[in-house]
Amino acid sequence: MPDTTPDKTPEPAKGKVEDSTPTAGPRVDDEATERAEAVDTTPDTSVDISVPEVAALPKGKLLEVDDVTLRFGGVTALDGVSFHINTGEILGLIGPNGAGKTTCFNVMTGVYQPTSGGVKFMGEPLGKRKKFQITKLGIARTFQNIRLFHNMTALENVLVGADAHHSTGMGSALLRLPKHHAEESEGEDRAYELLKFMGLDKRANELARNLPYGDQRRLEIARALATNPKLLCLDEPAAGFNPAEKARLMELIQTIRDQGYTVLLIEHDMKLVMGVTDRIVVLEFGKKIAEGLPAEIQDNPAVIAAYLGVDEDAS
Amino acid sequence: MDFSLLFNHFWEFTITGLAFGAIYALIALGYTLVYGVLRLINFAHSEVFMWGGFAAVWVLLAFGASQASGLGIVGLLVVAFATAMAASALVALGLEFVAYRPLRKRNSPPLIALISAIGASYTLSETMGLRDKPFKLLGIDNKMVDYVGRPREASPFGLNIETKRLFHVFDYQVSNKDLIVLGSAIVMMILLDQFMQRSRLGRGIRAVAQDPESAAMMGVNRDRVIRLTFVIGGAMAGAAAVMYLLKVEQIRYNSGFLLGVKAFTAAVLGGIGNLRGALLGGFILGVAENYGQAIFGGQWKDVVAFTLLVVILLFRPTGLLGESLGKARA
Amino acid sequence: MNAVSSFFHGIGDRFRGLPRWARIVLMVAAVVFVYFLPILNPPLITTTDSDFGAVLFTCAMYALVAIGLNIVIGYAGLLDLGYIGFFAIGAYTVGVLGSQHAKLPLLLCIPAAMVVTLISGVILGAPTLRVRGDYLAIVTLGFGEIVRLILINAGGLTNGNRGISNIPTPPGVDLFEIPKIRWEGLTAFVDLDNTTTFLKFGVTDSVPYYWLALTLVGVVLFLDWRMQNSRVGRAWEATREDEDAAELMGVPTFRFKLLAFATGAAIGGLSGALFATKQQFINPDNFTILYSVLFVAMVVVGGQGNRWGVILAAALLTWAPEKFRFLSDARFLLFGLALMALAIFRPQGLLPPRRSVRASKADAETEVLEEGVARA
Question: Which residues cross the membrane (chain B) (predicted)?
Fold first, then answer.
């Protein structure tokens, strides 16, 4: 599985920031490249990152969005949206900009309460659960605009994610009870495992804000995975990547699925999701306009109409 | 707890409460304007108020006109208002230049701006508290004793206008001072409202408060707008200082502190960043603490004020009218 | 000013590079030196206009305050402008239980003070930590003032403006006398007339109180370190960095903020209790709101989030006004000017946490690179 793509360069993580710097005097440019390439950040997808509780999930509907409507004042952001996600699949949630994809995420993760309708996770309504409770229940996410803890190291970022299934409190921490030690070492092992998987293990002790753009994107995924999510929601994880980088990331996401995770992927680039997703849901103006296998979606006239003119900037 | 006092003197407590409320409201405008534009608690605003008050006292002293009657009152008030407003505006402008602008240029985090504000507050009030020192060095402190003598004590006088009872509101005889304070406060508020609504500069302030980046792209000069908010806020604090001098009849180097905290409370109460909120908050605070004083006794006045703030924030975390300088008008 | 932090961080790096035995020896030597400061009376450091032992006690007490407030501001990012309120509650708990209404021994009063402040921290925090940061500042400012006003007005409980006297002292033993050192120029004399009795908590001699406070600083530092290097510390930091993201990563942010607030309050209560037992007399004037501002200044001047930095700042801001007493009147003016200068020229504080030093270094590098690119 790993390292099979022919166009794989030694530095896949070069992000938008570096790419957009104008080609300049060779000396300085060399230095910059050297700094970025000082360590190898190729993801090592052979690392086993699966967790038993996630792998043991029964097949079937994992999450059901049931007739969700969300209004802000007079604006209807989501209008009777229904779909479901099956365990072990990659579901693509696509649509033009402003279609309500991220809003839909926000309803699923407890940021917004739907005006009507509801979300069921493993057969149980999410109800008025708080954001952190939903995360503990097993839904983790990344953000469209990277929201790492910038002044913490890469390792610490992932540890915060791993802490979601820990329970060390003030008492255990102050008295250094066995629980503290056990959870700290479990968390660290898990974090290194995920960082290695993402190719970030050599950057573990760098501050998140000092990582190149691409590394930050993958660190966010690592942090979300550390919570042992039954459902991993990725909000445009490839935003700002060039096509080659996007392709590599999609491959990585498939590997994550192959290790037993269920993935919900937001992306507005339709071509990109065609290859990786098992099923696709299309939103436009807060309404679901299509749902089905990638091949069906591709030929759906409503989807084509929705995407006319958007295709350009999406690629 | 004793409600009979409040029932028996209801209008007295209401009207004096409104008068103090007007002072809080005018100071609160300064906090709210600066907060709206800069998202900064201008902790030193209370000292701007205090400096304006002293400036008025000094100028009246220089004119030898601390007391007046008849038409002289009008002249006295005009001079006092003009001096205090100009002085406070100047101090506010200087404050912005020395304490805040350098930080803005460096994009400092908000907490650092607050530290600078606290430092500026100490500096301004202590400078007033030490004002005799330079004159002592020059050896002319004896000549200036009226101005700089006993700098840690209260000023020799405020605006001493003989209190005259003019007319009844139910059982309370409204005094000329109440009328002057409330009347001039209302005039100030209407002027500010018109300015914010009609003038180009007022629109600029609202634009920057709403969306600094778009405003900049539309050609609004942010630095100029910021200077302007400090000037306006300062002038309002200066006007409040004159009213304070009328009601309290003295001012000290540290008079600003508690008043500033209360005015800020008023601003938060109404929804900080919202001009009408600041006015509403000021009046509510003034009246509420006066009622509280009547019910629980004078020593609990300040406790009532702060408790009110906590309670309101619990139920309406963004204040009574919500926070938006962009949408709100004075 | 940059020299300050690179000096201290330089020391830190050297220290970490030493072999284990050398580190232990150095550490013990430093601790002994700090304990013996009031005996040694080192020239330049010692204060001539006021009792050096008392100044050192105040330094240690405020160091405790700074460590506690650092948890609230530095770790959890909550701006608490009413910390003096907790300090006052701690002091008055000792006063009320130890003298005014009961005669409990001090060793019971101190834990009681911490429990009472912890509870008041929860009572104040539970409703207010849900509101936004700026509001928290003003609400806590109000709280600090309310506490003082209640102390004045609830005369039945607190004896009002007259204050509480005869506050119990810690139990002590008279073991032996330690003569202090007197300096004339650079020659040291053992001053047999000026001694401190080992562990006699009396009225005149502040040195035993200093030792007590210093010991507590050590204990609290140790616990502080344990908290920060655990799930709790990480949760605080994540919350400070990005509250929403932290919540979505499974951190119950409100609970952790409340924990930080209450822990900080309890430490404030502990230092207040120390104050009460040292002074043996307290009244509401000891707890004006200006102290809250001073406490926040300690944390920010020291470098939010760095426990050594805030201790250094606490000691400095306490010691300097005593050392330069001849400036008397102008002290607060200079304090104000210093705060402004600090905000403008050294916003990260005297001794910022190592991570932000690292970060700003990396930023500077990037800047140099970018400038290079722009120029080429």
Answer: 13-36, 48-65, 71-99, 179-196, 225-246, 266-288, 300-317
